[in-house]
Specification:
The chain is an all-alpha fold. It is about 80% helix and about 0% strand. The protein has one domain. The chain is built from 13 helices and no strands.
């Protein structure tokens, strides 16, 4: 009996040690991956901060965003939405709200509208490095591919330059990639997928208030979900419905506010510049200035 107990005791003693060793290797690999990602993020952030400090020049869109940022910081978000002083004949600011609003928050600390907006772009450009890593890892399940993807986003010259400029495209790119990441997580969820689908709609609404063209991607995401064969039929149908519903719940108050302010049926401030008659715009603008 003692002879048979010896090997079993040895095996029972070795197995926990082996599992502990594997666990230590996994933790070490995760820590190494985290350090590599942190190094990529630091390098990417340093490039963007240097570009923020050294960048020169400003295009017409950037000049408008800078004026709106100052208006929002000095008088509040609604006043910034209603009063576009670069194009004073329009009663509603045709530059969408998210980017200049975030710039107005930084402006209160920095005191320079252009630098504030460049810092917003640099923040989202740096955050895109981490988000790219997360999306690539979620999609391909390979940390090496994820690290290479993050590195390319971090050091690619043209993207780095855009990430430190007064452009809303970097912020919009972050919103789109965030929506895609949330959708990837949602289709893998077993219990919390309705909340995940709703969060995709929220991300798209934030993107819609950054660049209105991003709303077109909602349909693309819905079609992609419907064609995803690994999902059950009910989830393939319900995820797009919940995404669209959460987007619509947020869009409806914005739509009603635009209708009340402009007396037009428009879904975005961006449409106003094309649909608002100039004569009516002057009259309505003067009315809003008297009674803000």
């Amino acid at each position: 009996m003692k002879a048979t107990e010896g090997p079993h005791c040895a095996v029972s003693a070795v197995l926990p040690l082996r599992s502990q060793t594997v666990a230590l290797f996994v933790k070490a690999a995760q820590a190494l991956s985290a350090r590599k990602l942190a190094a990529v993020v630091v390098v990417g952030a340093a490039i963007r901060i240097w570009l923020v400090i050294s960048a020169q020049g400003l295009n017409s869109d950037g000049y408008q965003f800078a004026l709106i940022t100052r208006q929002m910081a000095d008088h509040g978000v609604l006043e910034g939405l209603r009063g576009d002083y670069f194009w004073p004949y329009l009663p509603v600011n045709t530059r969408l709200v998210v980017y200049p609003f975030l710039g107005s928050l930084v402006y209160r600390v920095v005191g320079d509208a252009v630098i504030s907006l460049r810092l917003v772009s640099a923040f989202f450009g740096t955050a895109l490095i981490v988000l790219t890593f997360a999306v690539a890892k979620e999609a391909f399940g390979n940390e090496r591919v994820a690290l290479i993807s993050a590195l390319l986003v971090g050091v690619e010259p043209e993207f780095a330059r855009a990430s430190a400029s007064v452009y809303r495209e970097t912020t919009a790119a972050f919103m789109v990639l965030l929506a895609f990441y949330l959708l990837l997580r949602t289709v893998r969820q077993k219990r919390l997928w309705p909340a995940g689908a709703a969060s995709v709609g929220v991300a798209f609404f934030a993107g819609w208030l950054t660049r209105p063209e991003l709303a077109l991607l909602v349909g693309t995401f819905c079609i992609g979900t419907l064609l995803f064969s690994e999902l059950s039929r009910s989830k393939r149908i319900m995820i797009p419905i919940i995404m669209c519903f959460s987007f619509a719940v947020l869009e409806l108050p914005y739509f009603l506010w635009l209708r009340e302010t402009t007396e037009l049926t428009t879904f975005s401030q961006w449409q106003v510049q094309f649909e608002y008659p100039q004569e009516h715009a002057v009259e309505r603008f003067l009315q809003l200035r008297k009674d803000p």
